[in-house]
């Protein structure tokens, strides 16, 4: 049996059955870990034989969709994907369990600023982050598993103790039809000169497909961070001069 459950929970017993896969998706906040178990309960022997005899029945693998418990979808090969339901395997009879783990993490967002890497005290620096929906594929017990990450929000850390959250990664001044050094939804004005390390964290909504064309949502966002974008902020001072810097390179502020 295959069962997708909320994050940070112990794997439930889920649907009862034989030779099925039990899989739980766990969200660590930075990646999705899918832990699978194949549980094969041992059935009593046929014909009244001894429990340890050779005439015991082997595990069953359902092949008829109508024979599946409610909420289960047959995916072939004796495997099914099931919604969480109450149920137990045969009581008092030990089960043979095998485990497999597949981990999936989204890529980091791209981060840029304008002007590129510089700013002026008291004037907005425009930051633009970009991230797209992405699918990461893997296998669990040899079966295909795909996790789809869709960006839902961006959190900017401007490096001076200020953060801002936006549902989009922002856009350039040109794309917005704005003049340089005008505020945007993702811009930031620094109060002091210095070098600041800017970072952006993308929050993704995650879904899992166990190879059946059906997406199961995973509770909680998955985040990916891009850091280390330096911005040097200068302080601008004005002065009246009689010549330009080209005419007098040794002049004030030249």
TrEMBL record:
Location of region: Disordered: 38-70
InterPro entries linked: Ig-like_fold (IPR013783), PKD_dom (IPR000601)
Domain PKD: 150-201
Any single GO BP term: carbohydrate metabolic process
PROSITE patterns: PKD (PS50093)
Coiled coil region boundaries: none
Highest taxon in the source lineage: Bacteria
Protein name, UniProt field: PKD domain-containing protein
